[in-house]
Amino acid sequence: MRLLSPRIPGMRRRISPVVRKRRRVEVRKGTWTKKGSKSYFGYKFHTKMDMEHGLIRELETTTASTHDSQVDLSKKTKKYVLKLKKWVEGYWRITNKITKTLSLKTRDNTSY
């Protein structure tokens, strides 16, 4: 199946009506959005990752103008959100312990 017309010397290639129609449909689906002073056309990918294995568990595609708050992947399964929350709490707990330990060591070394 040829989508483009045969090449004729001195003539430009014409795009077949099938390809032209397909391109029109793709253009209609995407939308424009503006971030700062730049304009973007296209789509956004929203992903939900499994924190335990680092795999993408769910992917949703929306138009570029859809705000991130409009897509909520956490409603479908709460397991991954809870794991993320636990990981963040654990991270901050460890970080706070490290900073407290470092500050105590610094004080002990300076107060002979």
Automatic annotation (TrEMBL):
Signal peptide residues on this chain, from the entry's feature table: none
Record-linked Pfam families? DDE_Tnp_1
GO biological process terms, alphabetically, are:
DNA transposition
Q: Where is the Transposase IS4-like domain?
A: 28-70
Record's protein name: Transposase IS4-like domain-containing protein
Please give the Gene Ontology molecular function terms for this protein. DNA binding; transposase activity
